[in-house]
C-alpha cells in the first residue's frame, strides 16, 4: 500500500503541474495521502482478523485514531491548498490591488476560522473513540451548571474574536495593506490572524490589536474605497501678504513634482483670522497617503521659503500704531471681482 500511494501521488503530481488548483492540491496532499492509504489498508487487515486475536482491539483502536488524525490533517491541507490557490490567483503586488486585498482578507480569515472548527471536530471524534470519554461527556452535560457558566465566561474573549473575525471577513472594515489610524497611530494592516491584527506603524513598530477592537471602536481607514488622499498644509502669515503670487507658487510647486501630485486638487484658501495674522490652508492631493505626506512637506517647506525670500515683511509679526489723531486714507475704489477658490466636494 505504501508503494502504491507513492506511485499514485507521484503520478498525480506530474499530471497536475499545469493548473494552479491541481498543483496546489497535489503538493499539499502528498504527505497525508502517503500516510493515510497504508493506514486504511492496515485497518482493513485488522477488521478481517479474528476478534479473539491477542491485542487486536488495541490495534484496531490505535489505527482508527491514526486514521482520524490523518483525515483531519488531510482536510486541513485541502483547505490550505484552496487558500493558496485563491491567494496566488489574486496577487497584491500590482498597482490597483483593491479587489485583490479584499479577496485575500476574506480568504485568510474565513479559512482560518474553518480550520479551527475542523481541528475541533477532529479532536472530538478522536475522544469519542474512548468509552470513558463518552461517559465523561454525558456526565459533563448532565451537570453543566456552574462549570458551564464559568467555561462560557472563560471562552468569551476567544468566541468574541472568532465572531469578530467572521464579521471582518464578510463586511471588511479593514483589509490587508489598508492604511489605518488606530489609537492615534498611523500604519498599514500587515497581518490578520484568528484573534488579533498586526498594524505596521510608519516607524516600523508593530501595534497588536484584538479583532474585536475593529468591530466595537471607531478608527480611520484611508484606503477603504481607494488610496487617493487630500492633504492640508497650514501657514500663518501677516495681512500684508498678497495671495495671488502665493497661489501661483503653490501651483508651480505641485507641477514640479508629478510623482507626488496626482493633478486633482491644488487650492489655497484663507481659513482663519486673528487680530495679528491670518491662516492659510493649502489643499493638495496624491495617489496614496505616503506620497501625500511627502507632498505636504514639500509644499510647506517651499511656501515658507518663498515668503521669506519674496515677502519677508509678511511673516507673522506684532503691530504697534504710533500715530495719534491721524485718520488713515481709505481707498474707496470698488475691488475687482475674483472667483473664490473652492474646496473639492467631500
Task: Please characterize this protein's 3D structure.
The longest helix is centred in the N-terminal third of the chain and has 34 residues, at 56-89. The chain has helices at residues 2-15, 20-48, 56-89, 98-127, 131-142, 145-171, 213-216, 243-255, 289-310, and strands at residues 179-182, 185-192, 196-201, 206-210, 220-221, 229-237, 266-273, 278-286. Strands 4-3-2-1-5 form a five-stranded antiparallel β-sheet. The chain has a three-stranded antiparallel β-sheet with strand order 6-8-7, with helices on one face. Helix content is 53%, strand content 15%. The protein is built from nine helices and eight strands.
Topology of this structure?
Blueprint: H1 2-15, H2 20-48, H3 56-89, H4 98-127, H5 131-142, H6 145-171, E1 179-182, E2 185-192, E3 196-201, E4 206-210, H7 213-216, E5 220-221, E6 229-237, H8 243-255, E7 266-273, E8 278-286, H9 289-310
Antiparallel strand pairs: 1-2, 1-5, 2-3, 3-4, 6-8, 7-8
